Each structure stands twice: as C-alpha cells, then as structure tokens.
Amino acid sequence: QVQLVESGGGLVQAGGSLRLSCAASGRTFSTYLMYWFRQPPGKEREFVAAISWSGGSTSYADSVKGRFTISRDNAKKMVYLQMNSLKAEDTAVYYCKAQQGGTDYWGQGTQVTVSS
Description:
- This protein has no helices and eleven strands.
- By secondary structure, it is mostly beta strands.
C-alpha cells in the first residue's frame, strides 16, 4: 500500500510561484512512476506532469510547459512541483499520483488559488 500526502498549496498572486510537495510511504518508492494532476473548479481532473523512477525523464502538459518543473528525491521519498509564472487558470486542487505495477495511488490533494 502506498500513501501520499501533498502540501504547499495556498493563495498566490498571478505571476508568483509555489512549490508543492508530495510525501510518499512505501519501501520501493524509487520504483514508482510519479505524477501531478489537477482539477480546476467545475472541470475534470487533468494531467500536469510526470517523472520516471530515476528522475531522468519528465513530461508536461502543454499548458504548464516552461513554467512548472517536476522533480523527485528518492532518498526522502518526495516528489515536488515547482510552479512559476502562475496564472489564474492554474487555480485547481493539485493531486499527487503514484503508479506501481499497474495500480494507481492518489493523495488527498492540495488547493492552489491564483488571484489575478
């Protein structure tokens, strides 16, 4: 069983930055594919970013490319999402997801609100 806890959300002005963190449990964290998703108000959950088990490969949604950076620290069992140049449309609940052996595990989410 994998447990994920997100933190770092909050209220920020447009153009500002936030860093989200996701703390994971599990003895084999370094084998998990890790993702960030988000769910804007009234919309479906959407992919934001992904990172390979080693951190050597990342991918991003077009809407955040060049502004957001996903990273991980396997020794600390942590995944991060650095968000820069935030826009009002980045307002959402942000979720961390771990994928292992075809099973998905989700955190409870953290709210990010960007004021324009």
